[in-house]
Design goal:
Layout lengths: L17 H16 L4 E3 L9 E6 L11 E7 L16 E4 L9 E3 L2
Length: 107
């Protein structure tokens, strides 16, 4: 089920640079174009441990409890057990550009 890349453990992010910001922007564009609530880098063919999400009302999720826009980089733990207390790095974008200087460590 799913693409082979999505069945593998993604590689950790080692460089927090313009390439990472471009990846986050691409993920954001893809998520919003599909009215999604979140997306992981392997879903767009990139084997890196990056996840973004934002829960707000949209056509696919009309009555959802809002969750702020968040970017997770190198999250740790089992997918069903990930909490804000066990994430290796949690970053929240201060603006939608996700430029390297606009990422803020929040955990």
């Amino acid at each position: 089920m799913g693409a082979p890349l999505q069945q593998q453990v993604a590689l950790p992010v080692t460089h927090f640079d313009a390439d990472l910001a471009a990846l986050v922007a691409d993920m954001d564009d893809t998520m919003r174009a599909l009215s999604g609530a979140g997306i992981a880098a392997p879903q767009i063919g990139v084997s890196l441990r990056v996840v973004i999400f934002e829960l707000r009302e949209n056509p696919r999720h009309p009555h959802i409890t809002p969750v702020p826009y968040s970017v997770l980089v190198n999250p740790a733990g089992a997918p069903a057990e990930v909490t804000s207390a066990c994430l290796a790095s949690v970053y929240r974008s201060r603006n939608r550009s996700a430029a390297p200087d606009s990422l803020e460590r929040v955990g």
